[in-house]
Amino acid sequence: MGRTNISIIDEELWKWAKKKAIDQDLKGVSEYIFLLLKKESDKEKKATVK
Q1: pLDDT at position 2, please?
Q2: Does residue 27 register a pLDDT over 70?
Q3: Residue 37's domain spans which residues?
Q4: What distances in angstroms separate CA 30 from CA 5, 42, 46, one per listed residue?
Q5: In a domain? residue 18
Q6: Residue 6 resides in a domain
Q7: Left (φ > 0), alpha (ψ -120 to 50) or beta: where does 9 sit?
Q8: Is residue 33 classed exposed, middle or buried when 0-12, 13-18 and 19+ CB atoms within 10 A define those classes?
Q9: Considering the entire predicted model, what is its pTM?
Q10: What is the DSSP string of 22-40?
């Protein structure tokens, strides 16, 4: 798997994402972000199939 560098643009949002990642037993915030991206991608794919 590749590595990702993330620039933090909002400290409060970063803290929120870190808590969400911990709550879901993920390895880090980037894993949580990519989980969100996958969900969005899957949602778009379903919308184009209809």
Answers
A1: 79
A2: yes
A3: 11-49
A4: 8, 18, 24
A5: yes
A6: no
A7: alpha
A8: middle
A9: 0.75
A10: HHTT-S-HHHHHHHHHHHH
Q: From CA 1, how far away is CA 23, in angstroms rounded?
A: 23
In angstroms, what is the C-alpha Rg of the chain? 13
Q: Classify 3 in phi/psi space as left (phi over 0), alpha (psi -120 to 50) or beta.
A: beta
What's the structural domain count of the chain? Answer: 1
Q: What one-letter code names the amino acid at 21? A: A
**Please, which pLDDT band fits residue 16 given cuts at 50, 70 and 90?**
very high
Residue 50: pLDDT band with limits 50, 70, 90: low
| Residue 17 scores a pLDDT above 70 | yes
